[in-house]
Amino acid sequence: MKACIKNILVLIAIVLFNGTAYGEEVQQDSVIFSRSCSFEESIDILGFEKRLKDKNELYIVRNNTNHTITLIKLRVFYKTTNDEMLDYRDVTLSGELLPQTTKQFEVVSFDKGKRYYYHKSPDQNPKLEGYPFKITYELIRYDVAVEK
């Protein structure tokens, strides 16, 4: 029972970690989480790719924290190159992302009809008809691995 309570307290510490201010620490038993950057600065999208005929989108993500991250949730906004909104959705990136590292994640594209391509994606065939788009995103949440 004592171990179960400790696990619950660690989970509470994780929840509190997401709400802490810059540089603040949360301590529960022997687990200490310190934030080296603000929540918004914790995760960066360094690159994105979706060509016209791709069924997946590629995200290149950097972990700016000092902790292993196991899940990232983003709200992605898809817009025309004139900033008109096409769509938005929440995207979940699952997998270990070690501290201060970068990793690629693939998810199924919002573009089921394969009519759109990311305006910076390489090797676009000018003969293919499609519509360019760009993205913006908000970081909704990320999960930190609790390790012994």
Description:
By secondary structure, this protein is mainly beta. The protein has 2 domains: 35 residues, no CATH class; 105 residues, Sandwich (Immunoglobulin-like). The chain has 1 helix and 9 strands. Strands 6-5-9-8 form a 4-stranded mixed sheet, with no helix packed on it. A 3-stranded antiparallel sheet has the order 3-4-7, with no helix packed on it. A hairpin with a 2-residue loop joins strand 1 and strand 2.
N-end to C-end Cα span:
19 Å
Structural class: mainly beta
Strand content: over 45%
Helix fraction bin: 10-25%
> What is the CATH architecture descriptor of the largest domain?
Sandwich
Number of strands: 9
Quick structural summary:
The protein is mainly β.
List key phrases describing it.
single chain, 148 residues, mainly beta, 2 domains, four-stranded mixed beta sheet, three-stranded antiparallel beta sheet, 11% helix
Lay out the secondary structure.
Elements: H1 2-18, E1 25-28, E2 31-34, E3 43-49, E4 56-63, E5 69-79, E6 85-97, E7 102-108, E8 116-118, E9 131-144
Parallel strand pairs: 8-9
Antiparallel strand pairs: 1-2, 3-4, 4-7, 5-6, 5-9
